[in-house]
Amino acid sequence: MSEPNNQAGFTDQSLIRNFCIIAHIDHGKSTVADRILQLSGIVSDREMRDRFLDRMDIEQERGITIKSQAVRVPWTLDGQEYTLGMIDTPGHVDFTYEVSRALAACEGAVLLVDATQGIEAQTLSNLYMAIEHDLTIIPVLNKIDLPSAETEKHAEEIAGLIGCDVSDVLRVSGKTGEGVEQLLNRIVEEIPAPSGDASAPARALIFDSVYDSYRGIVTYIRMVDGELKSREKIRMMGLSTVHDPIELGVISPDMVPTKALGAGEVGYVITGVKDVGQSKVGDTITAENRRADEPLPGYRDPKPMVYAGLFPVDNAQFPDLRDALDKLKLNDAALIYEPETSVALGFGFRCGFLGLLHMEIVAERLSREFDLDLISTAPNVTYDVTMEDGSLHHVNNPSEFPEGKVKRIVEPVVAADIITPKEFIGAVMELCQDHRGQMGTMEYISTERVEMHYTMPLAEIVFDFFDQLKSRTKGYASLDYHESGEQSADLVKVDILIQGEKVDAFSAVVHRDKAYAYGVMMTKKLRELIPRQQFEIPIQAAIGSRIIARETIRALRKDVLAKCYGGDITRKRKLLEKQKAGKKRMKMLGRVEVPQEAFIAALSTDDSTDRDTKDKIRAAAKKEN
Amino acid sequence: MTYELYIHVPFCLRRCGYCDFNTYTATDLGEGASRSNFAQMAIREMHILKRWQLEHGIEEPPISTIFFGGGTPTTLAAEDLVALVKAAGDIWGIEDGAEITTEANPDTVDESYVATLKDGGFTRISFGMQSAVPHVLHTLDRTHTPENVSEHVADAQRVGLEVSVDLIYGTPGESVEDWRVSVETALALDVNHISAYALSLEPTTKMGRQVRRGELPAPDDDDEASKYEIADRLFSARGLHWYEISNWAKPGFESRHNLGYWRNVDWAAIGPGAHSHYAQTEGRHLHGEGAATQDAEECFGIRAWDIAFPRVWAHQLNQDALPWKDTERIDRTANIEETVMLGLRLREGLPLSRIEEVAASTPEPAVLRRLCDEGLIEEPSSVIVPTLRGRLLNDALISRVLDSVAY
């Protein structure tokens, strides 16, 4: 390993190149990043561990980078040592804002595309965002070593998208290392050096903030103007708080404390704050004794888009769930939660998430890292409900949907971009129409693939859109969406009643035209999932007091009548013990025993609609009209 | 104290598609485990078992019942069965008036066969009739005809054996009317005991695979419930009353051997895969196999079962070793569960005093009241007796009673 000459805090801006890598999940970003660390010599081959940058288990398993990191990488070209700031960005649609801050910390971006798959919608949307930020784009095709790579085809596609020559698209293989050296050279040659005012009052952009169990909150910053010194007080301009920095430093690839950070440099600061809410992404840090006048642009609070209830299967775990959420919150400013009581599911929390993936990740971390057995209700969005009497309700839980005469309901809308091979255009259009999508424009990004633009209620996307999109396009389509205002809509709350009792966990706010479909689907699902019991169980769907669908679980007449002679006794007893253990996983709704699996399966949205269901929906709707 | 003997004969002429019992159609399974010398091997096991009992301080009274099950015990020569009874008598003694039963396939017996059994001390024979309807018998892979059942039943009755027949309901393709015909046909045989079993579909059997592949319709719980009700009504009307969920008899003709299982008596078991049971009773100190525990108080009995595969079973016997596959110590919890689960199968019911004895508590009167109101048990008394509905929903009843006992 060689010691870099350019010392942190004393590196001339002209020798700095800050870049990020824009890539879709699984397109090999981490492997390429690993190669860069290895080639630069800051990580020895021996220390090299796969996917160095991805620190959390879930990220490694899913191949998703949730939290960005920033590594200072030395690279020498033509005898001159340069300092590269490599900023790792999250790859998923839920983390758009975080991506935008990471992009704002860079002058250039490596667009990394899997040569076997081509560009995906989320990557495209991040690419557009990078272009909007005036970043220099270096297009790269990865995985060229794979036999299924279609390098020429996808190079043309990329060249068409960013308006470069096909020969400008670099070919690399993170796996073999081929092309990575050229990539580093091109980063130095093509990406502009930072151009902040080194003598102005300090301004540093927070582009990430991570909870570390040993160090507390580690805040990643990009110095734009001036310099910060390790002994001087700093100020968070958005929050108006002042801290003594405990440590200032750079990552290379471990944390290295420095005396200062100068204009153009990327590094970290540790202030001793306890949660990421005290050190927010997008905020500007300045020096307290020489304050900047204006913060850097673009700061905003993360806003939850999707809500769901999380309930421990065993209600005794409620305090554990609270502790676990408190801990996750340290690292996740976007996660919000408040206690919620459900008649069906007991005590839990109503949680707000940036999107579905964010929700899945939180649920998975709760179960994996905190060993909690959870039920999650179906995700929903926030509605603004205005009543005839003029009262206004902000509803993020269907069970709180107000009773009485509703004047107007407003729901959030998103702009959705879908990239699909052209043979699925019809299927995607049909799916979007089914989900109340309004088609905007459509353009061919290559001879094979199109990008379609829709405006769609967010509620439609969080319900079952993504799974259906994947299944109708054989997995080829990709989706990106972002907030795009709101609209009023004809929505109703559908309740599900089991033996006449409303089960709040199954209530949903849906478009009036879809109410029958939801009611029929849900009652049918529950009929299949709830085991027969000693009495008949009616399962109904209702809008207000009006029943729109009904199924009946017939009374159980016989359970097991097996023989029980000498050799059967042990087996029969073990079966009883198993049933008893199974009962512990039952929720009592009135007199009805409902297995946890029924909640989980009924709330999952992967249902394919069979013919019987379709007939029943039609019949229910007809009866109404 | 009661001591019974069960002997498992693991041979059949052919395997029926629904059967998952431990039985083989080959006549020679190696290591001396063949149909022709099975009796010899089984007698060897009796001697080894007696030695084990002595070593473990288990002294049993004379045998009160012997039951030959299978497989098809009547695939052995009648003389073999008789020799086994005689050997058991030599080793343990047999009570006067003991009940000695064999199961039989209507294909495998004739008049001289049943006469030999009767002369050798047998008192009962239980025929696997299953159905009186040819297409149902065909689905069950049974080779007998309704006619030879009545012929063999008559033979057995003529030599003085008590006769029971077994029926199966719920066979794929069996209509309610088919079932009624089977029940009526069985009753017309003028037997004093009938067992009727819901077909239980085991996934590893040929029939299990046929149902899974959709070649046969799956048995339906509601259909089986209706058939049970029909059987119970018709049997009762002819004086055969239920005394256990799947068994009906005229008073005094109940199978004493089978009642022993539900009353938790001791029984020794001989033959591949057979299960034995020794209850912990006063003055007995079970130890060694299965009972191994620091805390002898925690042992409420042991169960042991023989190696199922005849060749390995025979190999053990040839080594002069007890051919047990495994043993199980019944702890307090298991004892409570077994007491409740077995007692609630019986017309004589589960005495509250028996629950008190094993669990040190009894269900609250309010719980019993509710079970009665729901039609699962008879009017509460000192004994919990399941109703017809309580028999059909016996599992639910068992777990409700267990839930009401703190254990």
TrEMBL record, chain A:
Protein's job: Required for accurate and efficient protein synthesis under certain stress conditions. May act as a fidelity factor of the translation reaction, by catalyzing a one-codon backward translocation of tRNAs on improperly translocated ribosomes. Back-translocation proceeds from a post-translocation (POST) complex to a pre-translocation (PRE) complex, thus giving elongation factor G a second chance to translocate the tRNAs correctly. Binds to ribosomes in a GTP-dependent manner.
Record's subcellular location: Cell membrane
Keyword Nucleotidyltransferase: no
Stretches for region Disordered: 605-625
Originating organism: Bifidobacterium psychraerophilum
Superkingdom to which the source organism belongs: Bacteria
Binding of GTP, residues: 26-31, 142-145
Catalytic activities: GTP + H2O = GDP + phosphate + H(+)
Pfam families, per the entry: EFG_C, GTP_EFTU, GTP_EFTU_D2, LepA_C
GO cellular component term of the entry, any: plasma membrane
Membrane-topology descriptor: Peripheral membrane protein
Family: Belongs to the GTP-binding elongation factor family. LepA subfamily. Belongs to the TRAFAC class translation factor GTPase superfamily. Classic translation factor GTPase family. LepA subfamily.
SMART domains in the record: EFG_C
E.C. code: 3.6.5.n1
GO biological process: positive regulation of translation
InterPro entries: EF-4, EFG_III/V, EFG_V-like, EFTu-like_2, G_TR_CS, LepA_C_sf, LepA_CTD, LepA_IV
Domain Tr-type G, first and last residues per copy: 14-195
UniProt keywords, alphabetically: Cell membrane, GTP-binding, Hydrolase, Membrane, Nucleotide-binding, Protein biosynthesis
Keyword Hydrolase in annotation: yes
NCBIfam families for the chain: lepA, small_GTP
Name by which UniProt lists this protein: Elongation factor 4
Biased composition (Basic and acidic residues): 608-625
Molecular function via GO: GTP binding; GTPase activity; ribosome binding; translation elongation factor activity
TrEMBL record, chain B:
Biological-process GO terms, alphabetical: porphyrin-containing compound biosynthetic process
Database matches in PROSITE patterns: RADICAL_SAM (PS51918)
Keywords annotated in UniProt: 4Fe-4S, Chaperone, Cytoplasm, Heme, Iron, Iron-sulfur, Metal-binding, Oxidoreductase, S-adenosyl-L-methionine
Entry-linked InterPro entries: Coproporphyrinogen-III_oxidase (IPR034505), Elp3/MiaA/NifB-like_rSAM (IPR006638), HemN_C (IPR010723), HemW-like (IPR004559), rSAM (IPR007197), rSAM_horseshoe (IPR023404), rSAM_sf (IPR058240)
Keyword Mitochondrion carried by entry: no
GO cellular component: a single term: cytoplasm
Radical SAM core domain ranges (all copies): 1-241
An example Gene Ontology molecular-function term: metal ion binding
Location relative to the cell: Cytoplasm
Record's function text: Probably acts as a heme chaperone, transferring heme to an unknown acceptor. Binds one molecule of heme per monomer, possibly covalently. Binds 1 [4Fe-4S] cluster. The cluster is coordinated with 3 cysteines and an exchangeable S-adenosyl-L-methionine.
Similarity field: Belongs to the anaerobic coproporphyrinogen-III oxidase family. HemW subfamily.
Protein name, per record: Heme chaperone HemW
Organism of this sequence: Bifidobacterium psychraerophilum
Lineage, top ranks: Bacteria, Bacillati, Actinomycetota, Actinomycetes, Bifidobacteriales
